[in-house]
Request: fold
Amino acid sequence: MTGQTQDLLHQALLYGKDEEYLATAVPYLREGLAADAMIIAAIPNRCYTAVRDVMGDVMDMYAPAEDFYRHPVRTIAQYLDIVRGAQAEGRPVRALAEVQWGGASWQTREWGRYESLVNTVFENRGVSVICSYDRRVVGDEVVDHARRTHPELLEGGMFPAYNNAFEHTELYNARCDKTPLPPVPAEAVRMSVGSLDLAGLRAFVKDHATRRGMSAAVIARFVTAVNEVATNAVRHGTPPVEVALWAGADDVLCEVADIGLWHPDELAGYLPPENANSPSFGLWSARMLVDLIEIRAGYHGTRVRLLARKED
Amino acid sequence: MDATEHGTIGEFGAHGWSTVRPVGELRPGDHAWLASHHPEEKERVVGDFVFDGLNTAQRVVCLTDVEPHRLPGMYARHHIDVRPFTEADHLRVIPWRLACGRQGRADPEQLGRTLERELDRAFSERFRAARILADMTWAADVPGGVEFMLACDGAMERLIGPSTRAIALCQVDLRAVRSADALNALRNHHEVLVEVNPEYDDGVLRMTRTYAPHGLRLEGEIDGARHPVLTDALTTVSRPRAEVHLELGNLKFIDLGALKMLGAHAMELTRGNGLVLDNPTPDLEGVIRMVGFHLFPGITRGEGWRSM
Reply:
């Protein structure tokens, strides 16, 4: 490293006009260039063009935001790969980011969780990132997430404003996991599982997911993830283990419930493991394979709910 | 495995489709072929073939020039001293010279007559069935040997093909064979290609040793209930400084736990080139790609990968 601090700088920029965006982004990137940082951006094309018009082609890497922000767990893994590459070259990373906040409420929640996880994943890796929030696009709920997930807030002006709403990742994450899940609908199909021999469960999931319109490529990943969660429930949970499956308009959901109380290391399942031998490999991989896994553990039992879009 | 999967369709030879069958699943009328890549493969197939015969009151006739007590796999694999069986004529070991020599010349028709006589004798002595083992390795290396063996094979086929009580196994050591054409000609004479019995088969998962390349063929599904047997099988095939290939073409499902075990196992094989995965299904490849191949250091992508 060239002597800079390795601390993570994670700032939120709330802007309402492109000029405000540039007023922060341009000096920020110039500083990075001066420090020979790897400059990366995952921002909307509009912002990218604006920056390029002012500074020229200064970026080492650019991904259009709508491609980069499709799946929070996969995005973190991708980001970490990039950062590891920069670390291998001994360069700090300077990033511009603008998450595409999805429409469904769970998507907003998971992108909020993602922003919070950034604080943990990129700690001490020489990373500096400004996450921009276009006030013309995002609502108050998203801004509220931004305040809770960024230690520093840029809201006009040169210097970050004091942000007393910031929450540490563990706390934020635990709050995300307190949101009640909607009840399993009455039309869900159900099956109970008693042993690690899950051939029957796989056939059940495959059959019902196919009939509910899930495409073959997605099913293979969905079945693998459900199998993993059910294996955990049988191994570590308390029987009976019950599986329910149902579908929404665009997605298929599966819930694995047992009556035990599971205390997973909540963050572990979101952080990319070092290799397949890491203890969190199973849960993390399952999260990579489907669009969403939510865990609710309490004295009433443990429920793990998986959601996958029918089409890729 | 369900019944339809017992014979997997093998290669298309000059004489039509051939079927691959484990030695334990050979049926009367089968005239089977083994070109063994490794002494252990020969021990397993030949040893099991002869042992199964002795164990189920079948007459076993071996056409081979080795001494009875050196029959492959009998002592090493089944811990059997064959002497009592030869003394009781349960096992008959006939040198080629006696089986097909006529007036000082080797005559394939003579072999046919010898075998016909042996079978008649076996059935008249109340054996329920008979098996014939023909070790053809010597012929592979002799000028004109392959032509001679082809003729012998014809005589055997006429005898065994229609039989409801006899099985024949023809075998060569691949390492002794110099000409691939000769080998193909011999192999194409056989509709059944024989392989070792599976290491494990519970109807959901089947694991079979492979010798070219060295490794295991996994078929069916692997989940948490089958992790212990997978570990055992992996441990059995692993040896220092040798690649282990896993043939995955018929593996329909593998859970994340087993993938993790493969990763751990690959890391342990540090002195070799590790673990090579061949022919994953599109589904499996999709899962591994999504999780990230870099999480499995030590695992190598072998044949049949589509992308990445």
In short: The first strand of chain A starts at residue 9 and ends at 15. The first helix of chain A runs from residue 18 to 34. The CA atoms of residues 293 and 306 of chain A lie 5 Å apart. The domain at 9-176 of chain A is CATH 3.40.50.300 (Rossmann fold).
